[in-house]
């Protein structure tokens, strides 16, 4: 315990400098943790994907629709347990900037394929009875102050015009990372309007959601679905739900890479701050190290004093950053809910931030320690201050 007391007293010789260094390391560790959490948030959809669900879309692009007539052929493929479909609506409520995902589901039975969405059975029954009924995620309900029974008007973009819905239910997530921002409604509502306004768009869906009986056969069943429609006017690209989600990550790959580069730069900044402090400390104590050598202290003792103080400062800074990480990410998650449905801190982020603080403490002490052990006693005693 005496060695820890000595390290504390050494660190507090210049209290202001030490406290500023701890604060600097803490802020940098906090920034590193927030960036890592943002990167994890981008991949939440991939991590939450079900292994027993496939998504089949147009081979050309997700923006191209598929004919409803494909459903019967998909259902006949061995290994397929259930099939439903979804369509992206891309409307807005009052202000185009207030984004939230809106998806037209085939029917109320579609919710059975998504056990991660917790919906009251009465709400599903009401959803099945009314063509303009909607079931909305709890986060979006809270965001706009909606209640069950409210009438909501969305302005369509892909499907032009004003669309009136009645909220009949709220869904919550089985897990913390489940997306609870979506707005689900009937595909029939769209199709009937298309019959009146755009007959050429009747009977078209966005993508197929396929539940399979054996996740180990996902690749074989995906290939069978695509073979079924090969060389047709509506060829498909079928993949696991995780791969489908991963394809969206390609659209923002530059952003993710930028965040990774910035997080690496943050580590460099931490190292420079800590290394500067330790270099100044070692330079001020040259004569002390010479005296310690004269008294018989070994190079190991000198390294222990310098390295211990460096680890103490960076460790306290790291602890400060990690303690601040929880409330900061919670606040950011609330603000960025519309872009990141889930903003959890990955346990690996704690490991990385803690390891970074320790690594910085070690690296920052390398040069000062190397310089101190190479110091000749006579040269050290000649220095004053």
H/E topology pattern = HHHEEHEEEHEHEEEHEEHEHHHHHH
Count all strands and give the number. 12
Radius of gyration: 30 Å
Helix content: 40-55%
Structural class: alpha+beta
- Ranges where pLDDT stays below 50 over 5 or more residues in a row are none
Percentage of residues in strands: 15-25%
Number of domains: 2
- Could you give a short account of the major beta sheet? 10 strands, mixed
Distance between the termini: 28 Å
Q: What sort of overall outline do the alpha carbons produce when their principal axes are compared?
A: elongated
Mean pLDDT: 82
Secondary structure tally, helices: 14
Could you describe the 3D structure shown?
- With 385 residues, the chain is of the alpha+beta class.
- The protein has two domains: 2-44 and 252-382, no CATH class; 60-234, no CATH class.
- It is built from 14 helices and twelve strands.
- The chain has helices at residues 2-11, 15-42, 44-48, 70-75, 121-129, 138-144, 187-197, 218-228, 241-249, 253-284, 286-294, 299-335, 347-373, 377-382, and strands spanning 53-58, 66-67, 80-88, 102-105, 117-119, 133-137, 151-156, 161-173, 183-186, 204-205, 207-212, 236-240.
- Strands 1, 3, 4, 5, 6, 7, 8, 9, 11 and 12 form a ten-stranded mixed β-sheet that branches. A two-stranded antiparallel sheet has the order 2-10.
- Helix 2 runs antiparallel to helix 13 (347-373) and helix 10 (253-284) runs parallel beside helix 13 (347-373).
- It is elongated.
- The protein starts with a helix and ends with a helix.
């Amino acid at each position: 315990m005496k060695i820890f007391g000595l390290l504390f007293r050494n660190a507090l010789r210049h209290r202001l400098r030490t406290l500023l260094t701890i604060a600097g390391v803490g802020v940098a560790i906090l920034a590193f943790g927030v960036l890592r959490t943002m990167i994890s948030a981008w991949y939440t959809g991939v991590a939450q994907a079900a292994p027993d669900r496939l998504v089949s879309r147009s081979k050309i692009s997700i923006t191209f629709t598929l004919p409803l007539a494909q459903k019967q052929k998909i259902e006949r493929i061995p290994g397929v347990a259930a099939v439903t479909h979804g369509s992206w609506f891309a409307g807005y409520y009052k202000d185009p900037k207030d984004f939230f995902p809106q998806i037209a589901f085939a029917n109320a039975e579609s919710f059975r394929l998504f056990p991660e969405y917790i919906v009251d059975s009465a709400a599903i029954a009401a959803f099945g009875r009314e063509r303009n009924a909607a079931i909305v995620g709890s986060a979006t309900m809270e965001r706009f102050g909606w209640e069950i029974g409210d009438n909501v008007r969305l302005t369509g973009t892909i499907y032009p015009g004003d669309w009136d819905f009645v909220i009949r239910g709220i869904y919550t997530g089985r897990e913390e990372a489940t997306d609870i921002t979506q707005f689900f409604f009937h595909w029939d509502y769209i199709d009937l309007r298309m019959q009146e306004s755009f007959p050429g768009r009747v009977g078209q869906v966005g993508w197929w959601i396929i539940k399979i009986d054996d996740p180990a056969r996902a690749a074989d069943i995906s290939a069978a679905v695509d073979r079924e429609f090969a060389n047709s006017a509506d060829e498909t690209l079928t993949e696991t739900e995780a791969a489908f989600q991963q394809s969206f990550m390609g659209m923002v790959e530059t952003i993710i890479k930028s965040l990774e580069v910035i997080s690496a730069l943050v580590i460099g900044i931490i190292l420079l701050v800590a290394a500067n402090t330790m270099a100044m400390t070692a330079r001020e104590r040259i004569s002390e190290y010479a005296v310690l050598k004269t008294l018989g202290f070994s190079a190991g003792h000198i390294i222990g004093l310098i390295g211990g103080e460096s680890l103490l400062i960076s460790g306290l800074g790291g602890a400060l950053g990690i303690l601040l990480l929880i409330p900061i990410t919670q606040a950011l998650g609330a603000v960025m809910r519309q872009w990141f449905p889930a903003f959890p801190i990955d346990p690996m982020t704690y490991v990385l931030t803690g390891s970074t603080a320790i690594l910085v403490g070690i690296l920052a002490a390398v040069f000062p320690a190397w310089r101190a052990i190479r110091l000749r006693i006579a040269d050290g005693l000649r220095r004053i201050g």
